[in-house]
Design a protein that fits this description.
100 residues, 7 strands, four-stranded mixed beta sheet, elongated, three-stranded antiparallel beta sheet, Immunoglobulin-like, mainly beta, 0% helix
Length: 100
């Protein structure tokens, strides 16, 4: 799933089952300046979630998340650094963890 947002508000997604490994991501092209690309992508996760895999290209980022505790609400943040300008940008999404 690629998440599109205005970059200012936090997107809230459908619930994630604690036993699932789900994919999420952002398309950053609307926030990048002309000629700017993603050089580093890092994910800030709560303790109960595990990064199973992550990747990025020049304009998009993705992560596969596993874990979570049923009944908890989680906020996940993607922090990128750009080239050549060195801008640091954050985007976040929220989801409730529970049985689907």
């Amino acid at each position: 799933m690629t998440i599109y947002s205005d970059g200012l508000s936090i997107v809230t997604l459908t619930p994630k089952d604690p036993d699932d490994t789900d994919s999420y991501g952002f398309d950053w092209s609307d926030r990048l300046l002309t000629g700017e690309t993603i050089s580093v992508s890092a994910w800030v996760l709560p303790d109960d979630l595990t990064e199973a895999d992550s990747s990025n290209d020049t304009t998009q980022t993705s992560i596969k998340l596993s874990g979570g505790v049923a009944g908890n609400m989680y906020t996940v943040t993607n922090r990128i650094t750009t080239t050549p300008n060195g801008h640091q940008l954050d985007r976040s999404f929220k989801f409730y963890c529970g049985d689907k």
